[in-house]
Amino acid sequence: MAKRDDDLEFSINAPFDDGRAVIDKVPLYLVNGSLGAGKTSVLEFLLQQSDYKGSRVIENEYANENVDGYRLEKLADIVTTLAGDCVCCSSKHALTRMLLDFCRNSPTPVFIEATGVARTMNLVEKLINAQIFNKYELAQSFYVIDAHEILHGIEPVHEIELQAADMILVTKEDLLSENERAEYEEKLHTLPYAKVLSAPRGRFDLS
C-alpha cells in the first residue's frame, strides 16, 4: 500500500535506529554550481577519496535523460536520479523519500548534485521543512564556478550562491590565456568570500 504524505512525515520523525543502537546523523554534502562549470568532475574527485568511499549520490538532471550519473556509478555505492526538474523546485516528497531510504540502512555520506539552475538556500529550506536534518547533518556545501565567469563578471544570481557556499571551487583556470591571467588574478583576490580554491579538472586541495 502506498504511503500517504502524513505517513512519510511520521516516519521522518521516528527514532533513527539500525536495530542495535542509535546511529549518528548522516553527513550530507551539497554540490552546486553554474551550468557547465564542472560539478560532476568535482563530485568524481570527492568520491575517489577514502573518507567518501561507499557514499550515496542523488544526481539532479534538469533534462529527462541522466547524462552525468553514468560517470559516477563506478565510484558511488548508489546513484539515484531526479530528472526532468530542478531539485529545489520539484515535489519535496520525491527527494525526502530518497534521503529517508538512504539513512535507514547506512550512515555513509550522501551527496546531492544539483542542477545549474538550483538555488542552494531554496534547497536547504526545503530540507528543513521536511525535517530531514533530524536524520542528516549538513556537512559542507560546495559551489563550482568557471574562472571565465569570474573574469567577465559574476552573474547576480550566482553572487547569492557564492555567499551561501562553505567552499567555492574555481575550475578551468588552465583555459585562461596569458593576457587574461593577470586580470583574472586581480578579480579573484577581491572576492569577499571565506574559502576559494582552485580546482583544475575538478581536483582541489583537501587539507
Q: Assign the CATH topology.
A: Rossmann fold
Provide the number of structural domains.
Answer: 1
Number of strands: 7
**What sequence of helices (H) and strands (E) makes up the elements?**
HEHEHEHEHEHHEHE
* Rg measurement, Å: 18 Å
Mean pLDDT: 83
Query: Helical residue percent?
Result: 25-40%
Helical segment count: 8
Quaternary form: single chain
Shape from CA axes?
globular
User: Could you name the ranges where pLDDT drops below 50 across 5 or more consecutive residues?
Assistant: 1-22
CATH superfamily: P-loop containing nucleotide triphosphate hydrolases
Strand count, sense and barrel status of the largest sheet are: 7 strands, parallel
Share of residues in strands: 15-25%
Q: Name the CATH architecture.
A: 3-Layer(aba) Sandwich
